[in-house]
Each structure stands twice: as structure tokens, then as C-alpha cells.
């Protein structure tokens, strides 16, 4: 990837700025650039991402890209955040019970694994997946954590989820699901797909049970 530029652009509604509902927004120019970023990641991986190639594919100048993002790494993070935002949008209502919450988490992992961009990272660039999703809590993880915390709080009202801090429980829930997704390919010869889902489901229930 290209080195970080010396001039830091003005803040925009991208990777670290979001409206009150917690879901980020991108304008038409940023969306076109992120579409091009998705295409580059799918074709070349994150290591093939450069601002020069990105601007060429998006049909915008490099200064236009730098007005929203500081470097290619920043664009990748924004692209991944947009993918996560789209998955979280599939769950507009919080879970009503522990069973519903576990179902939602399992469905989330399925959508995550079949997302073309995240799927490519998991299959072909696991070290990049680790760097962008596990080495620090970024905007994508915070968006997932906020969704999980809301769902946990709602499920607690049903009475079958233990009443500890939803935000703290969300962290452990994310760690459990994230680790299972990252290790899925490693253990695919040891457990079937149905067994993997069954055991993950049991672990999630165990974590949440009142």
C-alpha cells in the first residue's frame, strides 16, 4: 500500500463519523470510490490497493480521494466498515429473546462469511483479515458491538438472558463469534458445517443464559 500522506484531509462522514443512529453515511462520490475499493480488494487483495489505481478505477482524481481518506489503508478500513454496515442493516429490530439473539448472531456470521469482500480476506488473506478486524477495535467492530449490546439489552427484558452489562457481554459475544468465523477454515476437516454451527450455537447460549 502507499505511504500515508503528510496532509490530513478534513473529516467527513466516513469511517469515523456517523450520525446519531450509529450507521455511517457516504455521499455519492465516496460511494463510487468505495465501490472501486471493493473491486480492487476482490481482484488484487488489500495489498494491491493504491490511491493511484483506486482513483483511476473510480474516475476521480487523487486529491478527491484524499479529501475523505488519508491513505490506502484508511480506504480499506472504510470499505470494510461499509460492508459491515450493510450486514448490520439486515437486523433492523433487536432480538426479543435469547433464542432469537443466538439465531441473529448465527445469521450474521453466515452473511459475514458469504460477503464477497470479507470472504476473500478469510480465504486468501487471513493475515489481512486479522490486521483489520482483530488487532484493534475499529469502527466496524464498534458498529457490531453497538448492535449486539442493543440486542442483548432487549433480550434481557424477555428474562432468559443474564442481566450483566450488555456492552461487556457484547464484547465477549463478538470475540466468540469472531474466533469461530476466523477458525472455520482451519477446523473444516475436523467438524462438519452442521456440527460447527451446532457447537457455536451451544457456546452462544451458554454465554448468554440467565
What does this entry look like structurally?
It contains 10 helices and no strands. The protein is mainly α. The longest helix has 20 residues, at 139-158. It is globular and about 55 Å long. 28% of the residues are buried.
Task: Tell me the structural class.
Answer: mainly alpha
Q: How would you state the average pLDDT, rounded? A: 88
Q: Whole-Å distance between the termini?
A: 47 Å
Helical amount among residues, as a percent range?
55-70%
Per DSSP, the total helix count is 10
Order of helices and strands: HHHHHHHHHH
What form results from the Cα inertia axes?
A: globular
What is the total tally of β strands? Answer: 0
Radius of gyration: 18 Å
The biggest sheet, with number of strands, parallel, antiparallel or mixed sense and barrel status, is:
none
Question: Regions with pLDDT < 50 over 5+ consecutive residues?
Answer: 1-20
Q: Please report which band the strand proportion falls in: under 5%, 5-15%, 15-25%, 25-35%, 35-45% or over 45%.
A: under 5%
